[in-house]
Each structure stands twice: as C-alpha cells, then as structure tokens.
Write a structure and sequence with these properties.
5-stranded mixed β-sheet
Amino acid sequence: MFRSLRSRLILASLLWTGGLLLVMHVLSILVLHVIPSVRLQHAPWPVAAGLLAMAAGVVALRQSLAPFRRLREKLLCVRGGAGRRIEGQYATEVQPLIDDLNALLEDREKAVRRALRTAADLAHGLKTPLALLAQEADRAAASGFPEMAVSIGQQAERMSRQMNYHLARARAAASGASGRARCQLAPCADALVRTMVKLHAERALTINYTGPPDLVARVQREDLDEILGNLLDNACKWAKSKVVLHATERDDVLSILVDDDGPGLAPDQHSAALEPGVRMDEAAPGSGFGLAIVRDLVELYGGSIRLEKSSLGGLRARITFPTG
C-alpha cells in the first residue's frame, strides 16, 4: 500500500505515537485516582511537552531521510561524470549499500578497460592477415586473375571496415561511460578545418568554422576529433564549393551543425544514411561506416544526431550534446 519509505516511516511513527498516547492516557487516569491532589491546571505542561516531543520527532524523521537525498545527489554526480565513487559517511544501515555500489562501479570500470584492451589486441592481430590478403590480391592481379584479385580485395576491405567500426564502438563505450570528459570545441574544430583544407586542396573548397571561442563539449578530445572529422570529410566529399561548421550553446544544449552545398539526400534517406555499412552512392569513395560511428559516439555521450536539408542547398548534420 505504502511504497514510499517516507510514508512507511511516517505511518510507523504515527502508530507508535498513538499507542504511546493511549498508554499515557491510561497512566494519567490512574495517577489522578491514586493522587487526588493533582490538579487539572497542571495539565497544559504535559500537553506542551508532548507537542514539543512530536515536533522533535518530525525533525528527527526528516534528518533520518537526509542521507537518502544526499545519496541520490552523489549518484547523479557519478552519472554526470563529476566523480567515480560515492563519497561520504552514511548511517550504519546505509553504508553497506554504499560500499556495494562503489564496488560495482569499480568492477564496471575495470570491465570496460579490459574490453577495450581486448578489442585493441584483436584489431592488432588482424591487421597483419588483412595486409597479407591485400598483397595476395595484388599478386593475383599481376598473375592474370583480375576477378579473383577483385574478390579478395573486396573481402579484405570489408573485414577492415568492420574491424575499424567495432574498434571505434569499443573505444566510444569506454570514453562515453566515464562521462568525465571536457574538451574545448574551437581548437578541435580549427585543427580539423585546416586538415580538411589540405586534404581537399585540389578542389579549392571553402571550409569555415564559426562559433564562440569558449564553447566546451562534454566529450573526449579523441572522440570529438572522430565525430567532427567524419562529418567534415563526408561533407567535403559531396560539397561543390563550400562547407561550414557552426556551433552554438543555448539552454544547456550544445548544437553543432555541418553544412555543405552538395546534392544532399532525399528526406526518406536521412535515417538510412546513419546505419552501419550503408552507402548512398556505391561509386563514391568511403566505407559506409563513418556516419554510423558518429551516431554511436554521439549517443554514448548522451547526445543526438539527425540529418536535414542544409541552408546551403546540400546536407546538414545536426549534433546536440547536453552541457548541464
């Protein structure tokens, strides 16, 4: 009936107080009969003392529930990345729960680190066989077996794409789980813009970043580089002449827009373009995993991504991150 701990404690206190009042009432009647000299004019003092005791009981009840409020605040801090453990001393009935929660958090962090190391070791072990497969494809082509060379090369590329995609997911899970990352946006964006200008120098694209210089993203620098790098590279591949990276912050939300003046996508293709391995144009270079990696990274940091029609005429990628 009463699911709230507060309600149960109040009910128990009321029942205990009610029983105590009944006992005291009986005792007072007995005292009046045994000691007739007791006068009723002395009755207000016990009543006042009783009311004072009840008020003190309410205060004590609120204080007994205070550790649970502090515990919730500490858990929110851990979830938000402000700490790794639940610090502080609590009542003897609550402290074992706190110790178990801290042990669980520590075990989870160790498990994430182990998973990341395992993924990195697996990727390192697969790089050599994939390189050998690529060499075999070249030998097959040189020996007059072009169809076999193409088939081997395609399968090696597919395995490489899958490996890189899942590696990025593992690294993203480790980074996003921590929640403690903070990164200046402007230096990251400026560095990536300079890189993209050099990579696409032959096309003479105009690539700009606009936004306040003091914006901070709750993302690790390496992951922010991965997110913006994939978006900018994708925009540059399709742009005719211009790519714009723009960032703003409003109402505890950081918004990052990447616009291009390319052909864009039809609205019914926006969701599909974020799925892993999907390539909207098989003739264009790319693996089909870039936007999927961006989506996974963004979501692991509590953000969201969607594709829209750009004001430049092409495609717009809109990313939002919580800042509060």
